[in-house]
C-alpha cells in the first residue's frame, strides 16, 4: 500500500473527479486576508468546511443513541463561523465532494491549527468507491467555547492505494452513507 502524492491527487481530480471543487495549489490567503489553508499539499488534500453546522445541545436531555438518534439534539446553524460549546461537539460537512477509486482508502487527519487549540476532527475512513460530501465531527476538548471557520481548511485527506483491488467495495455493499449531501446524521 502506498501513500499518493500531489501529482496523483491532481491527476485524479482533473481526469476522474476525485475531488470537486478542486484546488491544485495550497490557498493561504483570500482577498488579501490570511486563512487556514486548503487545497493540495505534498501528500494530501486539505478540505474546507461548508457553512452548514449542527451544534450539539443537551436542551432536551436526550440520550445519545446511534441506533435511535434524536435529531433534536442539534441546533442547525448556517454561518461563516461556528462556536462549539465547551466540552461539546458540532457536525459539519466538506465543501468538496469525493469519488474514491476502487483501489483507494482515504484517511482524514486534523489540521495542526485546530489541534493546537484543542479542537479535534474525526472522520471514519472513506472506503473504496465511496462518494459524497464528508460529514465532519469537531470535538471541543477545552472548557472554553471554540470557533470553526467555514470556507477555510479544517482537515487533511490522505490517500492510500492498495496492492490489489478489493473484492467488495463500499458501493458494492450498498453503503448507507453513499452519495450523501449535506451534514448527515447517524443511520441504522
Keywords:
globular, 188 residues, 14 strands, six-stranded antiparallel sheet, 3 helices
Tell me what the structure shows:
The longest helix is centred in the N-terminal third of the chain and has 11 residues, at 6-16. It is globular and about 50 Å long. Helix content is 10%, strand content 44%. By secondary structure, the protein is mainly beta. It has three helices and 14 strands.
- Kindly estimate the percentage of residues that lie in beta strands according to DSSP: 35-45%
Overall body shape: globular
Mean pLDDT: 94
Report how far the terminal alpha carbons are from each other.
Answer: 31 Å
Kindly state the percentage of residues in helix. Answer: 10-25%
Mind describing the biggest β-sheet? 6 strands, antiparallel
- Number of strand segments: 14
* Low-pLDDT segments, ≥5 res: none
What structural class do you assign from the helix and strand content?
Answer: mainly beta
What order do the helices and strands follow? EHEEEEEEEEEHEEEEH
User: C-alpha Rg, in Å?
Assistant: 17 Å
Amino acid at each position: 500500500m502506498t501513500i499518493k502524492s500531489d501529482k496523483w491527487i491532481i491527476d485524479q481530480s482533473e481526469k476522474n473527479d476525485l475531488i470537486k471543487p478542486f484546488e491544485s495549489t495550497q490557498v493561504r490567503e483570500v482577498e488579501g486576508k490570511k486563512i487556514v489553508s486548503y487545497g493540495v499539499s505534498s501528500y494530501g488534500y486539505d478540505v474546507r468546511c461548508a457553512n452548514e453546522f449542527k451544534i450539539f445541545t443537551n436542551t432536551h436531555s436526550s440520550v445519545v443513541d446511534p441506533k435511535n438518534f434524536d435529531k433534536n439534539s442539534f441546533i442547525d446553524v448556517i454561518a461563516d463561523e461556528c462556536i462549539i460549546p465547551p466540552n461539546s461537539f458540532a457536525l459539519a460537512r466538506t465543501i468538496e465532494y469525493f469519488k474514491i477509486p476502487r483501489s483507494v482508502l482515504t484517511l482524514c487527519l486534523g489540521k495542526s491549527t485546530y489541534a493546537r487549540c484543542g479542537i479535534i476532527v474525526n472522520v471514519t475512513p472513506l472506503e473504496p468507491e465511496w462518494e459524497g460530501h464528508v460529514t465532519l465531527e469537531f470535538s471541543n476538548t477545552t472548557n472554553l467555547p471554540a470557533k470553526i471557520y467555514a470556507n477555510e481548511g479544517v482537515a487533511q485527506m490522505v490517500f492510500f492505494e492498495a496492492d490489489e483491488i478489493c473484492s467488495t467495495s463500499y458501493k458494492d455493499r450498498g453503503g448507507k452513507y453513499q452519495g450523501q449531501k449535506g451534514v448527515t446524521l447517524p443511520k441504522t
